[in-house]
Fold these 4 entries.
Entry 1:
Amino acid sequence: MTIRVATAADAQYAEQLCQWYVESAKTRGTGIAKREPAYVATKMASGDGIIAFVDGELAGFCYIETFDDKTFVVNSGLIVNAEIRKGGVGKAIKQAVFELSRSKYPQAKIFGITTSLAVMKINTDLGYEPVTFSELTTSEDFWKGCKSCKNYSILMENERKLCLCTGMLYDTPEKQLVQLQAPDFAALDQKTESAS
């Protein structure tokens, strides 16, 4: 597998990626914002996308955008060739796009919205936490991107406070993942027995 920052030369793949977005939305039956090939190509040309290949064939893509004077950066548009899903490509792309976000915008809050359980799991592993939409950007430019999603009316009915997507946020570069230790229930049981 080859994963790298996309370049202007990768614009040749933009139409195929956009077709995958449409097919994925139909297959999953959930809302996925429509993307145009020209827009995807601009993300590639600006170095704001990660592209993946498996055995020399296009395997997937994801890109970043900034909002609110670069205080928020969204990791958006993750797509993987349906024929090779569940093989780790999506996770590798998400890791790379997260690292791209951290390197280009080290102080920004990183976020995404998704209906995909797999993406939620990957985001959680990267340190994101689920949040209400009020914790995300208020940029009109971001939310107008939802207009092509079939669930847009739900979002607007709820005054952009909630939808079928889950908002996920990586808030600070200093955040450390917390290691939780489960209590030793056997030891607790022995203490209780000896006290009675």
Entry 2:
Amino acid sequence: MISVLIADDQALIRSAISDLITHSGDLTIAGEAADGHQAVALARERRPDLVLMDIRMPGMDGIAATHEICADADLSAVRVLVLTTFEEDEYIVNALRAGASGFIGKGAEREEIAAAIRAVHRGDALLSPTATRALIDRYVHSSRLYTSEPPRELDDLTERESEVLALVGTGRSNGDIAELLAISPHTAKTHVNRIMTKLNAHDRAQLVIAAYENGLVQPRER
């Protein structure tokens, strides 16, 4: 069973998602929170497998709550899936940087939400690298994701790992990386996993962010 903590300030949304989880054979409710502070407190108390996190909430918002959860070593196994609307997609980059494993729109079908929960629980980034890059490209200037400040150190990465990180940042799959570097898909996957460990990244989407932040991939001009 996958335990899910629902964090949303709208009771109607919490009720709808709760109903979805109740009727899904492999999902169970770990609790409900109406704001970020409650979400963090319940995550620490109940250790859910996943937090379904709204962005805009009173008090502590979803981005701050995501950062608190993902920065807590005791909650390293907890994944965060962000709920959003189309009008709020400018906040997604910040949510990914805070540690979220992806996002899904509030208007998604019930089956899509359930599938998203399962995907993130498996360790997959719900947002594909290509989609992540497009999103970053759209908002990179306004969100100041890529600046002239010194990049984060990549000294722990080998030359090959830096090369792999750059390819991940351009939206390449493990299969693509294997073909381009003339290595096996298993070796490509191993490199990606090691990079995630060294950069303390939760998933592949975070590696795309890291590639941008460190200048390995340059934002496209609009």
Entry 3:
Amino acid sequence: MRAKRLTLFSVALGVLLTASLAGAADSGDAPNHPDSGTWIVTLGASVEYGPKFPGSKHDGFSALPSFDIRRFDEPDEHSAPDDNIDYGLIDFGGFEAGPVVGLRDSRSQSDDDRLKGIHSVDWDIDAGVFAQYWAIPNQLRFRSEIRQAVSNGSGLVVDISADWFQPLGDRWLLSAGPRASFGNGAYMRKYFGISSSEALQNGALSAFDAKGGLKSIGFTVSAAYDVTPTWTLQVYDRFDRLTGDAADSPITSKLGSENQNVIGISLTKAFSVSF
């Protein structure tokens, strides 16, 4: 996952720099007379320091891109740093819904040599739908994402969150809120299950039949600063506590940790595109 994410990061960074140069060549970051064909595109990249795989107690660096697009006349809504890439197709009365795309973590013996004999997990894209409701416009949001792995067989996840967004002055935006994440049987077996044959090959870990259900609860906080009207720098921290079979699995209880913490920093650039 690290190498793949770094590749995505390099692509995103290249696009980000290209967009910045293109924006500098234009008359400004936004057109003076926007029309219905004008969109605001936001590209970004993040660097994170956190567990090498779900349940790991060893941390490492990874990088990933971010992307957002909206019409020029649409409001710029707040978002949390752990939102996946989405696009709203339904929007009425504070309720929004549409497609969402994310990334699945990989795992191999190179992440921890004590995983000898335990199946590896390839990195993957997952896709699904999101739905969110603004109980207080642009301040209190409830959100859920349902995403299915595309090709690595790691099943379905459901993430539920709530966020409070608090502006401080003209440039700062703070946010914080709780998290809960569920995985179906395929997800839990892929990341936390150990077959009898794998247990024999490993010699130190016992077989474990991981069942679907609640896999973690947690909390996310962030602080974003508008360096310019189009450049934003954000720092964030997400803490999750693994629960149920995700916590009871020998991969977590013997090799890793129930506590999973990710620290990240991101930089985004917004610019206008006309069609």
Entry 4:
Amino acid sequence: MYTYLPIIVLVVAFLAAALKVLNEYERGVVFRLGRVIGQKGPGLIILIPVVDRMVKVSLRILTLDVPNQDVITRDNVSVSVNAVVYFRVVDPVKAILEIEDYMFGTSQLAQTTLRSVCGGVELDDLLSHRDKVNDRIQSILDQHTDPWGIKVSTVEVKYIDLPQEMQRAMAKQAEAERERRAKVIGAEGEYQAANKLTEAAKIISAHPEALQLRYLQTMREMSSESKTSTIIPVPLDFIKMLNPNFASPKDTDKP
């Protein structure tokens, strides 16, 4: 019995060193005597102790926070921009062989690309067309990281920090724009009111009785608004007697 004990110990030690379990989201790049023989996993895999060496690579989406970058836009405005990058490894062999540290490499590339793209657009485009800036950064990153076996899925510019002077200038611009809109709306209202008054004058000139009705309606409104005022109605015929030039169209048509 004891004669087989060393063999049993060696077998157990061999299996403990040779058997590896990889999760569903993991892949193992196997090196045999320094040469890549491929990727394995997920599940149970067998490695030759001492001869084989395995490097685990996660295939899940990784989140990379790009720190604040000082950028001067194309219209010479100094801003501070940060972003977040979502990417994943699609080819574990390339991610291990083509670059020493794909996380560090992608981080440095994202920082330089963020500065380059934001520095090539104007501030208004950076604020109002952020989706286009995001798409351009994502396209550049995906193009450069493709030889590394990495797929950049999304890039989002999170925050744009403007200087206090620029914030005050933009606030004044927005206020001036609001005032301009208010003046335009007011002028448009005056124009429409003038058109309506012109149409009303034409109707009254064609039907002088409408002026008398309007006169009575105005007196009624004045009496209902204030009870302390005294209203003395003056007939329109009396005004015609005092002012001979005041005449209705029907009077002017008489020979």
